[in-house]
Prior knowledge:
Blueprint: E1 3-4, H1 15-21, H2 23-26, H3 37-55, E2 64-67, H4 70-84, E3 91-95, H5 100-111, E4 115-119, H6 129-135, E5 140-146, H7 158-167, E6 171-175, H8 187-190, E7 194-198, E8 209-213, H9 239-252, H10 255-272, E9 278-281, E10 292-297, H11 302-311, E11 314-315, H12 331-335, H13 340-344, E12 346-350, H14 357-376
Parallel strand pairs: 1-11, 3-4, 3-5, 5-6, 6-7
Antiparallel strand pairs: 2-8, 7-8, 9-10, 10-12
Helix pairs in contact: 1-9, 3-9, 4-5, 10-14, 11-14
Amino acid sequence: xxxxxxxxxxxxxxxxxxxxxxxxxxxxxxxxxxxxxxxxxxxxxxxxxxxxxxxxxxxxxxxxxxxxxxxxxxxxxxxxxxxxxxxxxxxxxxxxxxxxxxxxxxxxxxxxxxxxxxxxxxxxxxxxxxxxxxxxxxxxxxxxxxxxxxxxxxxxxxxxxxxxxxxxxxxxxxxxxxxxxxxxxxxxxxxxxxxxxxxxxxxxxxxxxxxxxxxxxxxxxxxxxxxxxxxxxxxxxxxxxxxxxxxxxxxxxxxxxxxxxxxxxxxxxxxxxxxxxxxxxxxxxxxxxxxxxxxxxxxxxxxxxxxxxxxxxxxxxxxxxxxxxxxxxxxxxxxxxxxxxxxxxxxxxxxxxxxxxxxxxxxxxxxxxxxxxxxxxxxx
Length: 380
């Protein structure tokens, strides 16, 4: 039996989402840009999906642009705004706890003549609105901040940060790939101009995502071709993926799922704290994502814990799947002040509605034995 606790990396597809997709592989397989019946059926399905996703965040359908996933949405948002507004300025603000698909975009933009300011965070992973306001200057054109942090789960205060951006007439982009449908996002309330979301983090298919683009936002398309998505994102539409994405959104909006995941997380957290010398990272109240639990085990390597858990059929992670092949210390954990030894001993558990209490019980039966075994041979 496999116990999957790496849902921040990707999720299992919901059977209903998969079922919704199948006809668009087998029967309604037309190209949505074609004018014949099969093409128009595909187009209708895309527009229905666009409406579902728009309504989930209080947006209008024409403000949703489909992409291949979170990385593309982040690239599109940041590069598109940067180059479309370089006549106004070249200064962009981000944070030290962003996903690689944001931080590496900024490294590239620096090589193109843009100035990047990186804000720090407090020990729980939060950006202070006052720090953001101090960083804004006349040349600032964009602020980009991760909404729900993918390692420690901190949820930024969009209302306060959005008010700062609005006050200074600066575009506000959030990476919401981890937070979407797990916590409230409302584009009217939160004053956000661009939102990156994806499907595979919410039990939809891989290879599809979207960018919310507030009407009137000045942006340059960075992918050119046949003019799909109103000329904003060319490329043949991934109709099955878009349909499956929308179905996953419909299912995921049931708030009972969130309460259930919170219950599992609390059970796991209480069990972890019974193990000696364990520290829980990030916020553990309503300011933290329901599904992410980061724990540091003093004196042992997180990689060793992961390896031994895997032998028992338990899947977890030491950090972001997009950074798992590097030997660098995790930037987010450094940013919240964790010493290198604690960072090396950190494991991220991330849950979903498909997990069970019995699975958590099994993890809490096996994990203390693994920790004890590793500490016996630890030099610390």
